[in-house]
Design a protein that fits this description.
eight-stranded parallel barrel; alpha/beta; single chain
């Protein structure tokens, strides 16, 4: 056939003939079809489109209609686009082209043994899905198309959609044509006709093989919701979100092709079909030692097939609201027909939007095995294309299988320049008006403009903050002139998020109430510069933008690590030069993601306060075992931080709330005593073995065990806070060991290597798969962060030459990869497997009995804030004695100096995680002179302290 090409005839080389979408589908269908499921289909070629326009004599009409167009004039743009679409729709398709389309449709129907096959009809422009321009959503798609007549109408409407307002505007902005006199015929349109996946009976969504906010390349981000995927892409629904760490997946994502084993629960209510399902999301075997067994043994799947073992590194599972879904439109059991008389505004009523049942809103669309299967497919596609990808997936409710229905290059984060680190620092800000998931890392200031309908787009003025329910491609002409965007609905992969990233505009999506709270005309600041939560501040905030050239930063002997509390900021902060995390606080995770006192979860059924119980129910949807919610969310939060810095060490401090802070958690007042001075009361280690709290502490232990052994993050070290005595330390270690966290291995390593300091290097084998080095920078000596093939990953096998060949010299292999003296051979995989337990050195007793503490712990982290308080006898919260509080005090410095000497004598590592090195330049220099092993700093102070420490070391 002259104007038709089936997927098995198409490759990526045919982009100019079949457009980006079809070229990618054909490429995957031919080369990855045995590894992943891709529905078959065919392309109506760009030549067919050009033939139609030429045969109909409308090329000249299009050129005349666009001559002298100003795309910033919304009314003019809308009218000219309407005229062109009307011209195309009123023209008849040539008979020979119609015949070829019908013949191809019959052939596709026959393949799937259907008399009349349901198909998706989608646009595939010849300039779409390019590495530097996605053209995502610029043209139309039509789902659930059935029958020859409806197919021909849908094909013609796709062709006309090359001239929607947003498509015309986008092409001009991207330089594909000129607004005055240039031929828009430079970009042609092919049409994709593909077998429908019946996700209206199951679920669908999108998947990115890169973190869409930070550009962190080691994760897969999956969004999913019930029904057809249009609502997820367009941002009309807040989807479930899952994040998976790629380097630790191994073969864990492998599943039998018969995914009927995966689910055991019914599909969304009323669909009349069932599917298998595993346990509730995140549930674990009662005996976590099973995780180790899984790693060592081959796991049988009951189909006569086996798969190699692997970890399950899912570091985020967020339950979306999913209030609506798109399904097939049915009228009296028969699919509705298209209107016979076509106009530019004719709606093809083949789908409908319906509410999701309350039950299905409260459960995840994907279980653990399905998440891992999709993630594995994402890696396969990314490895094939050698670049981060934006992928659409769907599950068929009839056969239970998953399918990939589209894949395109990710166009924003993949092209990020890793040589530079940009920091927006807010100096002064107003009242918080609204918050929600942040898109990008910039700040936008302007008057708010609330627009609830596309009919009011002409009201929008350049520089305003667009606030709306959601955006779709029709809104793009005004999105590009906005200073910021705020939406009620949508997730991080919705239309508003994708386009705002591409435009470099800050956006906050899924706020739920943005259009109700924010008022037009109000001057406001939208800040996406503070992590993954974005804020709308009242008024004009004051901020500075600092750009750091990371290639010019000096090296230091002292390891500069990071203090980190928020998992949401971990991927962003991983790009700041560092040697790991010296202090990861559990308190933020518990406060923000769990919010509930662990004892209230353990005693859920005995709770008498109905309001407390309701709050717990609202937060623990999809969890029958309420205590498991605590374990899963804590493990995911810690796991996300460990993933961001893998394979470098991440020292996790166990919970250090004071009694008044614990009481503020949901249900906490029932379990917490009132203390006159909680700062030095029942906190830290003293709680962990106490009969009134030990059961809650065991949940922390289970979370750490899950993160280390089930998810695979053996770079996690554990730190005990506020440990007053040796006996107390032993009591805590005993409880930990009882719960599967046995200390061992790290404290006996080679003194010459530094206790634990190069332990991360022993994970080089895993690191090589992630494209990261022992220092965790993820960058080569030139700072590019890219490999010779430009993929950002190791190729072809994903391993560094020399490291995985038992016959090769490890040092030679690692030097070859890093281009410098190797650090990769300093540790060992055996050492990495052992759990190291540190203690906070924040009580004078920790210093006085340092030798005894060395016997039971692997290292120290100096908490200079509390240490100063207790050495000087000063309440650090009291303004009356604030002038006495000074970490530079000689008494405090002598304590620190003594600890460093004793610890090194016993081959123990010493770091500091207090604020002093960040606040006092001379203190950081003094610590370097004392030969402290590491300084853990707040992210915003790291760059300056590196310079300061390097200068001090140079003088030594």
């Amino acid at each position: 056939m002259k104007y038709i090409k089936f997927f098995n005839e198409i490759s990526i080389k045919d982009l100019a003939i079949v457009g980006g979408k079809n070229a990618s589908l054909g490429e995957m269908f031919q080369n990855l079809g045995k590894k992943i499921n891709i529905p078959d289909g065919f392309a109506v070629t760009a030549d067919g489109y050009r033939y139609f326009l030429k045969k109909s004599g409308i090329n000249e009409k299009i050129d005349r209609a666009l001559l002298g167009l100003d795309t910033s004039n919304m009314k003019e743009l809308a009218e000219r686009g309407r005229v062109i679409r009307s011209t195309i729709l009123s023209a008849a398709l040539p008979l020979d082209l119609k015949a070829e389309i019908v013949e191809a449709y019959k052939k596709l129907s026959k393949k799937y043994r259907a008399k009349v096959l349901d198909v998706a009809v989608r646009s595939s422009a010849t300039a779409e899905d390019l590495p530097d321009a996605s053209f995502a959503g610029q043209q139309e798609s039509y789902l659930n198309i059935s029958g020859e007549k409806d197919l021909l109408i849908a094909v013609k409407k796709c062709m006309a959609s090359l001239f929607t307002d947003r498509a015309i505007s986008y092409r001009v902005d991207k330089g594909f044509t000129s607004a005055s006199g240039g031929k828009h015929g430079d970009v042609a349109l092919s049409v994709c006709v593909q077998k429908m996946v019946r996700s209206d009976m199951a679920c669908s969504g999108v998947m990115f093989t890169i973190d869409t906010e930070s550009g962190f390349k080691d994760v897969i981000l999956i969004n999913g919701s019930w029904g057809l995927g249009e609502l997820v892409v367009k941002g009309q629904v807040s989807p479930d979100e899952y994040c998976i760490f790629k380097p630790l997946m191994g073969a864990a994502g492998s599943l039998p092709e018969d995914s009927s084993l995966v689910r055991k629960a019914t599909l969304p209510k009323g669909l009349g079909a069932t599917r298998p399902r595993t346990k509730a999301a995140g549930s674990l075997p009662a005996d976590l030692s099973l995780a180790r067994m899984i790693q060592k043994a081959t796991l049988s799947l009951g189909l006569g097939a086996t798969r190699p073992p692997g970890f399950v590194p899912i570091v985020e599972r967020t339950l979306g609201t999913k209030k609506i879904q798109m399904k097939y439109a049915l009228q009296n059991g028969v699919r509705s027909r298209f209107a016979r008389k076509m106009t530019p505004d004719t709606v093809l009523r083949t789908t409908k939007i319906v509410p999701v049942s309350d039950k299905d809103q409260k459960r995840h669309v994907l279980d653990e095995k399905e998440i891992m299967q999709l993630a594995r497919w994402g890696i396969i596609i990314e490895d094939y294309y050698k670049r981060p990808m934006d992928i659409e997936w769907a599950q068929d409710g009839r056969d239970g299988k998953f399918y990939i229905v589209q894949a395109r290059p990710e166009t924003v984060q993949a092209s990020k320049d890793l040589h530079y680190l940009s920091e927006y620092k807010i100096k002064r800000k107003g009242k918080v008006l609204l918050q929600g998931p942040a898109v990008g890392s910039k700040i936008g200031i302007g008057p708010i403009r609330v627009i609830k309908s596309a009919a009011n787009l002409s009201e929008f003025k350049k520089g305003e903050i667009l606030v709306t329910e959601m955006t779709d491609p029709d809104w793009e002409p005004i999105m590009k002139i906005a200073s910021a965007i705020v939406t009620n609905a949508g997730g991080r992969t919705c239309h508003a998020a994708i386009i705002s990233r591409e435009l470099g505009i800050p956006a906050i999506v899924g706020t739920k109430t943005g259009t109700d709270i924010l008022k037009s005309g109000t001057l406001a600041t939208v800040s996406c510069a503070e992590g993954e939560i974005g804020y709308v501040y009242e008024g004009k905030a004051s901020f500075t933008l600092i750009k750091h050239d990371l290639r010019k930063l000096p090296k230091t002997r002292v390891d500069i690590t990071m203090n980190l509390a928020s998992p949401e900021k971990a991927f962003h902060h991983s790009f700041i030069p560092n040697k790991g995390v010296g202090l990861a606080r559990e308190e933020f995770i518990i406060n923000t993601f769990i919010q509930i006192h662990p004892m209230a979860l353990l005693n859920y059924h005995a709770l008498k306060d109905k309001k407390v119980k309701q709050k717990i129910d609202d937060l623990t949807l999809d969890y029958k075992d309420k205590a498991q919610f605590f374990v899963d969310k804590l493990a995911e939060g810690v796991g996300r931080i460990a993933a961001a810095f893998y394979p470098k060490d991440v020292i996790v401090r166990l919970s250090d709330f004071k009694t008044n802070e614990y009481a503020n958690l949901i249900g906490g007042k029932e379990y917490e005593p009132k203390e006159d001075n909680p700062m030095i009361g029942w906190r830290g280690a003293s709680r962990y073995y106490d009969e009134n709290y030990v059961k809650a502490f065991e949940l922390e232990c289970k979370a750490m065990k899950k993160a280390r052994e089930y998810m695979g993050f053996d770079n996690i070290k554990i730190m005990i806070p506020f440990c007053r005595t040796i006996e107390e330390g032993k009591a805590v270690l005993k409880v930990m060991e009882k719960n599967g966290l046995k200390r061992g291995g790290g404290g006996k390593s080679d003194p010459a290597a530094g206790i634990g300091s190069d332990k991360a290097a022993g994970r080089a084998k895993a690191a090589s798969k992630s494209g990261r080095f022992a220092d965790g920078s993820g960058r080569f000596a030139d700072g590019s962060g890219r490999f010779a093939d430009g993929s950002g990953r190791f190729a072809p096998s994903g391993l560094v030459a020399g490291l995985d060949d038992p016959k090769s010299d490890p040092a030679a292999g690692s030097d070859k990869a890093a281009g410098s003296k190797s650090e990769l051979v300093a540790g060992s995989d055996k050492a990495a497997a052992g759990l190291e337990v540190y203690v906070m050195a924040e009580i004078p007793a920790n210093i006085i009995l340092a030798e005894e503490f060395c016997e039971i712990f692997d290292g120290f982290s100096i908490g200079s804030n509390d240490l100063t308080q207790l050495v000087l006898g000063v309440d650090r919260d009291s303004e009356l004695v604030a002038h006495i509080y000074d970490e530079n005090n000689e008494a405090v410095k002598r304590q620190i100096s003594h600890l460093i000497k004793v610890a090194h004598k016993h081959n123990r590592k010493v770091g500091i995680c207090g604020q002093a090195p960040s606040d006092y330049p001379e203190f950081a220099a003094w610590l370097a002179e004392q030969k402290i092993d590491s300084m853990s700093l707040t992210p915003d102070s790291i760059v300056e302290v590196i310079k300061r420490v390097a200068k001090a070391e140079k003088k030594q």
